Structures
1.
Amino acid sequence: MRLSSATRLAPRAKRPQASCAAFAACLVAALGILIGVLAPTRALAADGQEAPTLTEAQAAIVVDQAGNVLFSKNADQEFPMASITKVMTAIVALDSGKSLDDVCTITDANLGGEAQAAGYVETDTPTFRELLNAMLVYSANDAAYNVAVNVAGSEAAFVERMNAKAQEIGMTHTHFVNSHGLEDDAHYSSAEDLVRMGRYAFENYPLISQTVHQTSTVVTANGTSTRLYSTDALMGVYPGMRGIKTGKVSTGTTFLGASERNNVQLFTAVLGCTTDEGRFTDTRSLMDWAYQTYQQRLVARTGWTLALHPYAYDLGLRVAESPMLDATFSVWPDGGYLSYTTTRLCAGSLLEPGALTGATTWEQSGRTLGSVVLGTSRLVRRSSWPVFSLPLFSETEYGAS
């Protein structure tokens, strides 16, 4: 595993730090200039690791939050995306700026008796928020249709916006013809495009990530208040599951998923499954495989002495600098550069025990692994001291005296 580094220095302290509060204020300003050293984003592979077992998916992919591909199978092949469509419907609807508290009118969508629906009738007056909830949690097709009509005046006009948005975010194997995902030969996407859309939704639309994490929602349809339950069978069952959207058409089932553990966020997509259970089994397999493949790497311990600084009140003493907490990060094997950025006080700053001195942030292939905060701990006599040395915590990098 290769290692690279970058170090930024905060301005030299002009006088001894008489209080931790004043020093902390200086450090906050320093932390604002943390800059990552990024390796190029690329497909990642774990040497010697067997591929995840898939039971039904004809196309599948798992990526991290930075978009690094950890595993893929037929990721560019086009399949019906079914109700995963509704994620793009939510994105475009929120882009419109329409207030979530706006009262919406209901138009009969004529979607057929087998289409999953909340049961809205034309006399109902749901809020825009309620329609979005019914659409994303319960996958209500009538809610998706009416989101489109209330935002753009017609579904056709809304779909034009959906296709424009798909092009904007780089979905090159996707085409929409409706706002709900009911089957149509010209309505399709790919696994790679769908995880791109899922990542985009989570990064830019907090309401979407919050809504798809719900296990149920309450709607008032046909004059009756009803609780509708999530179609995501992994929510509340799979550790770290965060959503996001199921799909089902006559030709197969689909699922776009997201989960997070140990500061690792994964996005998965499975297309062309044959059963409801198969899409969840294969999603679980992709996520389990990825989390098990990550390796836990210790990068900091509180007992490590990283550098010695002049003591503010007795130049015959030194103040030892150490990590403030133990830190272990999840690292993808053979996943490119492991890089870090350090912000700290200039060498020679006069310090006392209990002061914050800096922080280091680690990244791998564009994914932030986590941060380590540094601080002073104990006083030692000015003498030769066995300073622990790592590329992250080296005397040279820190310019310690």
2.
Amino acid sequence: MSTDARTTGTAEQRLFIGGEWVEPEGGYYDVINPATEEVVAPAPEASPAQVAAAVDAARDAFDGWSRTAPEERAAVLDRAARVIRREFAGYAELAQAESGATTGTARALQVGVSASRFERYARGALEPVESAVPPQINAAGPMGGAGVFGAVAVRRPVGVVTCITSYNNPWANPAGKVAPALAMGNTVVVKPAPQDPLSVYRMAEALAEAGAPPGVVNVVSGARPEVGEAAVAADGVDMVSFTGSTAVGQRIAEECGRGMKRQLMELGGKGAALVFDDADLASAVSGIGTTFSFYSGQICTAPTRVLAQRGIYERLVAGLARYAEQLIVGDPRDPATVVGPVISAAHRDRIEAYTALAVKEGARLVTGGERPGPESGFYVAPTLFADCTNAMRAVREEIFGPVVTVVPFDDEEEGIALANDSDYGLLDYVWSGDVARAFRVAGRLRAGGVGVNTIGRNMEAPFGGFKHSGVGRDVGSYALHAYSELQAIVWPG
């Protein structure tokens, strides 16, 4: 099967196990374009036995890959990045067809970020793995004579890592797992999201061309839950890295607990955005407004739960309404489009159910709430609710769509209390003209990250969540730490 055939969806995709393209025992299922409802291409359905074979292939490859020189691992990752950049246009076209992303998002934030992550972890493979430990003077005793004992902490690869990826970014999300895992000397079994798995096979293809040995990277897809379950439960798996809903993450954690497997979990979010009376409202509106447009709200870091101090409450609501109403919803291939479709009909229906629930709970629908124009495709209008309370389900639960709720508050203490009154704690945001207050408030928020007067990210800063938003941290060098175990080596001086 040629690269072009797989990229354009003109041939049936096969599984990638042990360096071979393998016919799926479970047959095929259709990958649907969210913008047109047309079939992009058939995707392979792995059997549990084939998942086990992928784990065995990763296990067999681990010893050799883990002992490969860091410079060689770095070279493989760097060459993979070059392949991704060489095939950039075709990969972006496929990503757009699978995920419904706008052209700019598919190119820059999906494929482009993926290439950048492989480049980053090519450098990461060369980062020192040893950390000095202060020497310790021991007196003579039952354990032996007196002496000075040196020690060093060394990061070692965990082993075989199952990577279960999210549908909102079929390139950057798997690259953020696979690249640091391989840089540290692990081998991987990737289970892509069922909605858009084809891009992950292109990533595996790029790594194979770059010289990744057979079994170092394996990809097994499927629409049935048995595929993911087998990839988590297999005895040969040492770690599971998962991005997705909290409910699924909890089930994975239970299985990992039985086998004492390491976990890295990036789960749900319901980001609180505290906007104080002295905030730059234009900045706050443009930052919060990305919830309506960026991935059509299908992103766990979105500031979906706005907490507005009463002095600017009505002006902020009006500004967000104007922002939402000027956004163009439509075909993501059209350069004018800002808001594309959501991933599936089922997810569109779920978002619409939350919209109806918010109205029933007493929220004021300011704008949106209807199904927008295109006759085909899974579109949701940017939707804004005001006069909400923290008790409403639409405020408390992750909707994962272009829906923003606004809750008023009176003073700093109430704003902090409302922000922390949540099961989630991934990314929160603070807008205030008083930077000292903004940082003081940030220090009291129970979230893994806080944006002060920005929704921007520092891609070397640790990323992960408190509470039900996850376990562990990745991004930058923290991802290398996440995919490693610490070993202590001690010797007498």
3.
Amino acid sequence: MRPPARVWSVALHGVDGVPVEIEAVIGGGMPGVHLVGLPDAALNEAKDRVRSAVVHSGRSWPNERIVLALSPATLRKTGSRFDLALALGVLVAADAVPADRLRGTALLGELALDGRLRPVRGVLPCLLAAREAGMERAVVPRAALPEAALVDGLTAYGADSLAEVLDWAAGNRLLHRHDGTGDAAAPQSLPELADVLGQEDARHALEIAAAGGHHLLMIGPPGTGKTMLAQRVVGLLPDLDRDEALQLAAIRSVAGRLGDTGALSTVAPFVAPHHSASAAALLGGGSGVARPGAVSLAHRGVLFLDECPHWPAAVLDGLRTPLEEGEVRLSRADGTVRYPARFQLVLAANPCPCAPPVDRDCTCRPDARRRYLARLSGPLLDRVDLRVAMAPVTALRVTGERGEDTATVRRRVLDARAAAVARWSEFGWRCNAEVPGTELRTRFPLPGRVLAPLEARLRSGELSARGADRALRVAWTLSDLAGAERPGRGQVDAALYFRERGAA
């Protein structure tokens, strides 16, 4: 029996890659291919794809017993990304291909029966894991080369077929390299805040939400600008740094949403699923491998739920854990995967089912009105920091000065964010909304006269302890926007105003 050949690929567990060593042994029994190491159905079918691809690439398939072992053996291996590595492993074990160039090389790609190399999902997180494991090179389908080129410190090669990879491994040709174009996404044209007429309270709440990373609920009749305002939050948020952009791109890659340009977008994402979306579409899931949902695609950005009372109550309540923990956990028979989900939630709702332009024209019965907004459960609303009631627009022409534009408000938001980062960065927090309430009360305590309104509402039962902590975070954001060192009584009162404004 020949000694085992070893090649490398990468498995995906959620959005994290796990390097997989593939050992191939030929001989010692009846002809056949045996895969070990917890392969799923798609991977088990790779035996037929790999054999046909090797034969159609002009190479002989060993007519002997072939054992392919994927390690770590206890990790479930899913998908077709291992096809290329399996083919190379068999041919190296058969001494048909030299192993020199394959050392320290991650191999990813699905094989067609004629030997063509097809793209697979999750190339970016796989190669990030390969780089962390010390690998120096990667061979991927040519279509995935722009995505692979986003990983610094690892040389990525692209191929259109198995035959090209075999010739490269033998030293007879060069593989494709990324030409460097498209590394940065083209500037996006974002909606302008000055286009929103009136709604001073809502505009101020939007600025506070952007400055502190707070969640926001807007309640008002149709046509008051709720959706317009929500779409303009992204223009106020700071750009993503490279690590954040890579993390978001990795999530999009696993979900199949990265596109084929390989451009790395630094604009915070804005995700607005329809209210008919399922729990799996919102939170993540699906049969077999649990894929990321809208909450993860909105990571480090905005998740906007329009007409939120039309969402099933159980689906909305599923947001409670990611809102608190910044990640979503999806459990399946094969284990639990975690996807990042640190997003800002923006909710929009009509005041009642009939939603007339003027509230006095409402024809809904009181119980119907209560049931309509009752789909937003108390525990969910308790996690929403800012609530604003929006009035109907009463004029189409601007009689005075237009509202501030996006650039003006964004400068204030970035200054407030910088103040929060300077204060919290040593503790690992990036904005006021992420700071635990206990830390606010112990490390940065405020005088009793400043906290008096919060304590009064706690004693009367109007405010929960979580609600008080969230109001305190908003007060810190208001302080940062004002350029103050710490909140005063005015900021606490304003935080309570915005927490209670949409309670009706």
